[in-house]
Amino acid sequence: MVARVRLRFAKRGRLRFTSHRDVARAFERAIRRAGIPMAYSSGFTPHPRISWAGAAPTGAASEAEYVELGLAELRDPDHLARDLDAALAPGIDVIEAVLAVAGTGKLAERLDVSVWELVLHGIDDDQLRPALDSLLAATTAPVERLTKDGRRTIDVRGPLVSALIVSESGGGSEAPARVSAGGATASCAILKVVVQQTTPVVRPDDVVAALTAVASCPAPISSLVTRMAQGRLMEDGSILDPLTADRDAGRVVSSSVASQER
Amino acid sequence: MPVESVWPRLEPLLPKVRKPVQYVGGELNAQLKEWDAADVRWCLMYPDAYEVGLPNQGVMILYEVLNEQPDVLAERTYSVWPDLEALMREHGISQFTVEGHRPVSAFDAFGISFSTELGYTNFLVALELAGIPLQSRDRTGEHPLVIAGGHAAFNPEPIADFLDAVVLGDGEQAVLGITEVLRVAKSGGWDREQTLLELARRQLAYVPRFYDVDYAADGRIARIARSRSDVPRRPSKHTVTNLDAWPYPKQPLVPLAESVHERMSVEIFRGCTRGCRFCQAGMITRPVRERSITGIGEMVAAGLAATGYEEVGLLSLSSADHSEIGEIAKGLADRYEGTQTSLSLPSTRVDAFNITLAEEFSRGGRRSGLTFAPEGGSERLRKVINKTVTEDDLIKTVTTAYAAGWTAVKLYFMCGLPTETDEDVLQIAQLAKSVIRAGRVATGRRDIRCTVSIGGFVPKPHTPFQWASQLAAEETDRRLQLLRDAIGRDRSIGYRYHDGKPGIIEGLLSRGDRRVSAVIAEVVRLGGRFDGWSEYFSYDRWMEAAEAVGIDVDWYTTRERTRSEVLPWDHLDSGLDEEWLWSDWQEALDEREIDDCRWSPCFDCGVCPTMGTTIEIGPTGRTLLPLSPS
Questions:
Q1: pLDDT digits (tens, 9 = 90+) for B38-63
Q2: Which residues make beta-bridge pairs with B213?
Q3: Which residue of chain B comes nearest to A205, CA vs CA?
Q4: CA quadruple A133, A138, A140, A141: dihedral sign
Q5: Which of A22, A44, A183 sits opposite B256 (nearest CB)?
Q6: Which residues contact B560 (CB under 8 A, 6 or more apart)?
């Protein structure tokens, strides 16, 4: 491996129904079609060196997914991003690529929090606001989730950093199409939440479950959730872009830095 | 007129179902054409779950052949699992295509590919969900023409009432011919009857409604006859020749979801004349037509570039039989050495040459298991089924395999073959033990494994065994138990088996006539779907349905037919001469084998003269050159 490239990509539209495994397979095939010179693991069945950092759940869209590729030959990250994006299905879209700079730390460790946008169909702001207030006022908000190992209880309140209703006066301009299962346009509320990455991770549907179960909000008919950002939570409440470290260091150090990588 | 997509109403339901990705489309190389720009619109279906249906080569080929026509549009649909089916019924959402999420009922033609009869219930569910009347007679000009194809369609009689037309044999040219008729029919404002008549007259398809079936007092068929003189007496199968001219799929579909075949397939030849008497595929796809070594090389290169797959399967009914398979294996292995591309050869015969091939294919890679299919446990029984393998051959082959580094061998067998006795079945255990012994001697190791996999034999139409009695489920299960006891506690031998019950239902549907359609409809009404999946298949439901509509399942399955009986598929011409089929059945009972016509004189099965075809095989003498780096 002569270099590592860190990518930000999006999972949009109907492709949000892909699972993490689906996305991983799509990447492996797109990498082969795009002719990206991957480094391979050794052993009987060599695998391309791809490291995933936290994946959005099946059904959730995302504007901020991250992955790291190990290369056998150095490539310009912008070209690589363009070639890979062209080989991927529309809807899995590469947004940015940077060369990993040695000494900047692991990518996964820079992803402390997720910013989620929840479009909740079938409820309006007036129903959502009191529920959200009581959720934020609570010290714990346990919800049940069905996992492979049976039911388990997760506290939603602890990892919930902040929550804000952003759909004032009928919703923002960038709100996605709102059609309910019946086909009719229905009322809808949009919520923006910042959640810490804990184990087990609190997913957007857990937040919805907490709003309905703990804070007695009416259940939405359906919800559309999108991860808007991931990164490190700064003291001022802003989120630090996880690729900043490589981008900044890359500017200082010459591009030949890649040769110093293992 | 544009057609409304069901997507906006489907999307909110998807978070509630298992593996929603299978319903969203988005496959690499899928095509979404503008609805209004197309003159003729096809919806193609494989009637099983997406993960099974998507990799189907037949559907993929027709999809591309049709979409290559500028004014033709083809989309695909697959069976939806019961969780989504329930939601679709609740919300009034129609069966939809995965590209455009368009309702199936809006298309001109609805083509369904039946590899197995166990897809019949799923087909009826799809018709229901599409809002298309089940019975052909009840459909009007608003509904698509419902057209079946695939191997099971060689006896479409159990679903004939639900079909408007049936394509026998290779579909590539037939779908284009049908498309031409539909184009003329649409612009000329023909009614349904007139369109179907034209398909029948032009020998493009078998149209069941133009053939009447009369029954005798004893329940057997008295007569099958055309109801009008301007349709063929015996509709016949289509045969594509010169496979190099049909290099499909050129752009294989690559799903986002995981499927049962995570590889690209290249069909290296079509047809098989090994003459295994149980094998319907080998009988109905004659003669052998090879793709040339260079044609194969081009398809592999183009397909890998178009898909990004890392495995290529060389597909056919018996791939090691290609006249230049050695050169193909070596040429491809040379080309792709060091590229993380692996090659595989399905269906291997028991033949030491295959080990050489397998070594070529696994160059530098892992050698885990090899599969062979002796099918019959004893040499006597293998003569009956014309699978000429001696025990010596088998031992020699596996010895070579173990010596070359493979540590596990899987052996496929069938239970309930004609004339089979307990002794024949018990010999499978002996064979497995000999295989283990030979492997230990060859390698000096103890950790040698052999897996025996066995299922019930189902007699199929258009084969010499079409007259045979199928073994009753209880008797199949007794013999399987006997074998299990004989294998005993030997830890080095694995034992996998399929019990006899599903085979009986497959038998009913394989050799059934039009009266069996009532059973299928009743099973669907009782909730039957996904019959190829053991967690959904219910033998009791099938038996209950048969009882309810007055069908005697034994009569269709375990009863041996006589020479004079009119079989439900007798009016459908696969090219095989009925005299020859009968004499081959008699030879089977006499334990006499027959050679392969590729390397011995013609034995008059009848296909070539009837269909106007000839064997198309190499060697061409050409070789695969290294690919120049692009």
A1: 999 999 999 999 999 999 999 999 99
A2: B224
A3: B15
A4: negative
A5: A22
A6: B467, B468, B469
